[in-house]
Automatic annotation (TrEMBL):
Keywords: Signal. Residues 4-160 form the Peptidase C1A papain C-terminal domain. Coiled coil: none annotated. Transmembrane segments: none annotated. Belongs to the peptidase C1 family. It holds the Pfam family Peptidase_C1. This is Peptidase C1A papain C-terminal domain-containing protein. Residues 1-22 form the signal peptide. The lineage of its organism: Eukaryota, Metazoa, Ecdysozoa, Arthropoda, Chelicerata.
Length: 161
């Protein structure tokens, strides 16, 4: 499990999401081109934007996550994504009261971009990796301050570059 999580984290940090089908033209700008040959992951070292020297794991609570987000910027997180709910998600703040918060159920690596409040509901703004056509330009609002719902703060990390 731990290995799988590390792998997911690494993929998010590389901006690959769930697919490794692309060629970076520039690490900074994330220009990825799709290739017909899906089995090959091509990487051109002359376009390296930053070298990852390690990573920091954020303490498992939403307050620490908020501070890290404010201080560092976007944070790599892993969440419990009930795929059916996510597929049907059409906007607003996703609230799944019985969504677990333990590593056991964590299934999806995403990027935490921001936080806010909408219609009295606190939310985390999360960038998914399913393209811009998904939901609100590729983003989902997940519940915030609801006992770490869907494990939003359970496996949060950021790279040291
Ligand atoms: C790698 O990128 C550099 C700079 O953009 C380019 O000149 C070079 O041809 C690329 N190499 C490969 C193998 O694509
Ligand atoms: C996980 O959820 C449970 C039940 O809602 C809650 O008591 C607990 O504090 C949560 N754990 C974390 C790390 O937030």
């Amino acid at each position: 499990m731990f290995f799988r999580l590390k792998f997911l984290v690494a993929l998010t940090l590389l901006g690959l999401g769930s697919q490794c089908l692309a060629k970076p033209t520039n690490d900074h700008e994330h220009h990825w081109e799709r290739f017909k040959d899906l089995k090959k992951c091509r990487y051109n070292t002359s376009n390296i934007g930053a070298i990852c020297k390690g990573y920091i794991r954020i303490h498992r609570d939403e307050e620490s996550l908020k501070h890290a987000l404010a201080a560092v910027g976007p944070i790599s997180i892993c969440v419990v994504a009930y795929i059916e709910d996510w597929k049907e998600y059409k906007g607003g703040v996703l609230n799944i009261p019985d969504c677990p918060n333990t590593t056991k159920y964590i299934s999806h690596a995403v990027l935490l971009a921001d936080y806010g409040q909408e219609n009295g509901m606190d939310y985390w703004l999360v960038k998914n990796s399913w393209g811009e056509s998904w939901c609100e330009k590729g983003y989902i609002k997940m519940s915030r301050n609801k006992n770490n719902q869907c494990g939003i703060a359970t496996y949060a990390t950021y790279p040291i570059v």
